[in-house]
Amino acid sequence: MRLKKILEQDPEIIVTDAARNGEDALRKIAALQPHVVTMDVEMPGVDGLEALKRIMEDYPVPVVMLSALTAQGTVETLRALELGAVDFIQKPGFMDARALEKFEKELPEKIKTAATSTVHGKRPLPKPAGSIPVLGKKSSPLKMVAIGCSTGGPAALQQIIPVLPKNFPVAVIVVQHIPKGFTRPMAERLDKISHITVVEAERGTVIKAGQVYIAPAGSVFTVKKTGEEIRAELDALTTRSAFKPSVDDMISSVADVYGEQALGVILTGMGNDGLKGLSALKRKGGRVVAEAESSCVVFGMPKAAIEAGIVDQVVDLSIMGETIVKNVLR
User: Which family would the database say this protein is a member of (predicted)?
Assistant: First the structure.
């Protein structure tokens, strides 16, 4: 089995067993109690999503999903992240040597990162759209909320964006580390379950209050003021970051454009992307909120900001949406 061979090449990983299908996987997980599980969405019998649901209910363990390079595979992968998977990796095409090489390099690293993560399982969605009244007060000293996240981010965003009221008086920009092809379906999913409109940003998109903009994967995302308008820019600068988009690039540009009228929010994720941008925002008089370790899948990005002394509030994900609203209306 190729997957098993790839993982066994890493001396820090021990492969305890391989399963033939979903039912076999559930039996072996119960018996072997592995630190991490890798699972394909497409499996005979009990499929990956059903197996994942039962894993989270009966044997909570970090799960890294294998995703197909198709539209349906994208939707199913996002569903897996909702159900509690901590991360995913796209399966390479059979004839794509470069993609295979990338897969062989990234998979072991994702497995080792997953082993250090905290499993929270499937969280219930916040109150459905329409159940929270619109804001009585429509003005705010702020004009922008800038959110950055990585591992665990898609599920975290589903706990935050639906809480924002319909007439939210500021714009929201989100950078989520995720491969190309996933940001538009993620935006569409969030839009369906939220009061506020959620879209994938495009080059030249005018940033308006009462909208959530998801930065498109694969591009350097920044904002720029032109005349009276503030627009999204893609690949307008050369980034030093390993990520496209990066939280640092986005929030640094937000700091330049909005200054003290912006709120920076840093959520679950590995590494320290966002630290430079949030530091710049703090110097301009902006406020910073970080997710607490108690609810993070990976307490990396928030931890870096907290340890740097630039965070004004540290809150659990369960009250992050409410905290953002309170900051906007303070």
Answer: Belongs to the CheB family.
Confidence (pTM): 0.91
- Say what the pLDDT of residue 92 is: 85
47 part of the active site? no
| Domain membership flag for residue 125 | no
For residues 9 and 100, state if they share a domain. yes
The pLDDT of residue 136:
58
Cα(148)–Cα(179) distance, integer angstroms: 15
pLDDT at 132: 45
Whole domain around residue 229: which residue ranges?
144-328
Determine whether 150 is an active site residue. yes
The catalytically annotated residue of 87, 253, 273, 279 is: 273
- Contact status, residue 321 vs residue 164, Cβ threshold 8 Å: yes
Look at residue 268 in the predicted model and tell me its pLDDT.
98
Buried b (16+ CB within 10 A) or exposed e, 2-38: ebeebbeeeeebebeeebeebbbbbebbeeeebebbb
Question: Does a cis peptide bond (omega within 30 degrees of 0) precede residue 302?
Answer: no
pLDDT at residue 131 in the model: 42
Would you state the pLDDT for residue 256? 98
* Spans in the chain with pLDDT lower than 70: 1, 69-70, 94-95, 125, 127-139
| 294 noted as active-site residue | no
- 269 is a domain residue: yes
Q: Quote the pLDDT of residue 31.
A: 96
Select which of 87, 177, 246, 252 is catalytic. Answer: 177
Residue 91: give its domain's CATH number: 3.40.50.2300
pLDDT of residue 130: 46
- Any idea which residue has 């998109």 for tokens? 205
Residue 103: Cβ within 10 Å count: 19
